[in-house]
């Protein structure tokens, strides 16, 4: 029998950068959102992402545990007292197969080093701001839609969100509905801010009022007709893209044809792109 006083210790150390979960909402069997406490020292620009995660399993021999971290867009605006994230549930995904089971009071790891290109600083001034998202790519725009600067800088904000099924639009739809009663935006911008928002959700598989990929709907001109705006041009339009790789590349190609140039933090221009996930 092993003497407990000499057995190797397998205690899990206190979590570094631990934050406490304050709210969890599930939307579909593939999507959920959660809120957690915000590190006191964390400053970020709306639209940026951080690394978040959970501790991995202890190594069977050494007992050592390493954090399992993934990039996540911050879905809450820069002024929020808490942090919000909008997440996929990948059934066999190393992180999200576990993260999807978090509950209020649990701890998550949050590395307080925000980065990203989907920020106002990476765009030059314009009149109309477009957000193009697929799936969880809506997350950075959930942050920017609650950021007063978005409404200070632009006359019109158009948010397009393409998902396979109607239920996958719920997080974005609820958020835009809640903006109607957003007191901070009302106080800072005035009640006219609501009139600046145009929301254009589409589905590709399940039947909904507007079906189709946004790229196809733009190529045919249908999206512009529905929205009552002309196709994008470098004088008036600025855009942020956050979707899967194929979506990002197709839109980039279309934007170059419209005469828009890609911007970056170091060189602001007409549009910016970020991947919603790695592949
Ligand atoms: C800059 C950046 C920002 C990101 N922001 C978010 C975010 O706000 N919310 C979020 O859920 N994920 C986001 N991701 C993806 C995230 O980092 C993880 O990939 C995701 O949480 C799954 O982790 P996992 O360990 O369970 O599976 P992984 O091993 O990371 O992924 C397994 C597979 O699942 C698929 N997948 C991963 N993420 C997604 C996704 N979001 N939507 C659809 N399919 C996916 C991919 O095919 C991937 O190969 C972001 C990625 C990048 C690069």
TrEMBL record:
Pfam families: NAD_binding_1
Swiss-Prot/TrEMBL cofactor(s): FAD
Classification via SUPFAM superfamilies: Ferredoxin reductase-like, C-terminal NADP-linked domain, Riboflavin synthase domain-like
GO-annotated biological processes: cellular response to oxidative stress; heme catabolic process
PROSITE patterns in UniProt: FAD_FR
Catalytic function, reaction form: 2 reduced [2Fe-2S]-[ferredoxin] + NADP(+) + H(+) = 2 oxidized [2Fe-2S]-[ferredoxin] + NADPH
Swiss-Prot/TrEMBL keywords: FAD, Flavoprotein, NADP, Nucleotide-binding, Oxidoreductase
EC number: 1.18.1.2
GO molecular function annotation: ferredoxin-NADP+ reductase activity
Family in the record: Belongs to the ferredoxin--NADP reductase type 1 family.
Protein name: ferredoxin--NADP(+) reductase
Organism, as annotated: Octadecabacter temperatus
Taxonomic placement: Bacteria, Pseudomonadati, Pseudomonadota, Alphaproteobacteria, Rhodobacterales
């Amino acid at each position: 029998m092993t003497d407990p006083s000499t057995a190797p210790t397998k205690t899990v150390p206190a979590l570094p950068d631990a934050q406490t979960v304050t709210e969890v909402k599930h939307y579909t069997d593939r999507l959920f959102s959660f809120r957690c406490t915000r590190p006191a020292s964390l400053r970020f620009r709306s639209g940026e992402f951080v690394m978040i995660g959970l501790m991995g399993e202890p190594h069977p021999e050494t007992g050592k545990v390493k954090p399992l971290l993934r990039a996540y867009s911050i879905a809450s605006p820069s002024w929020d007292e808490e942090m919000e994230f909008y997440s996929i549930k990948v059934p066999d995904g190393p992180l999200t197969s576990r993260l999807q089971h978090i509950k209020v009071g649990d701890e998550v790891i949050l590395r307080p080093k925000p980065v990203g290109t989907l920020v106002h600083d990476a765009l030059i001034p314009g009149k109309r701001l477009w957000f193009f998202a697929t799936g969880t790519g809506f997350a950075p725009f959930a942050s920017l839609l609650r950021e007063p600067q978005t409404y200070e800088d632009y006359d019109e904000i158009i948010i397009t969100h393409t998902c396979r099924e109607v239920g996958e639009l719920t997080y974005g739809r609820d958020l835009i509905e809640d903006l109607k009663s957003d007191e901070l935006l009302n106080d800072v911008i005035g009640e006219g801010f609501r009139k600046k928002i145009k929301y254009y959700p589409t589905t590709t598989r399940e039947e909904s009022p507007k079906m189709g990929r946004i790229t196809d709907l733009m190529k045919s001109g249908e999206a512009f007709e529905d929205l009552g705006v002309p196709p994008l041009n470098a004088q008036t339009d600025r855009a942020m893209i956050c979707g899967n790789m194929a979506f990002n590349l197709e839109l980039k190609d279309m934007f170059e044809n419209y005469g828009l140039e890609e911007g970056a933090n170091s060189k602001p221009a007409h549009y910016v792109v970020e991947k919603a996930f790695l592949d």
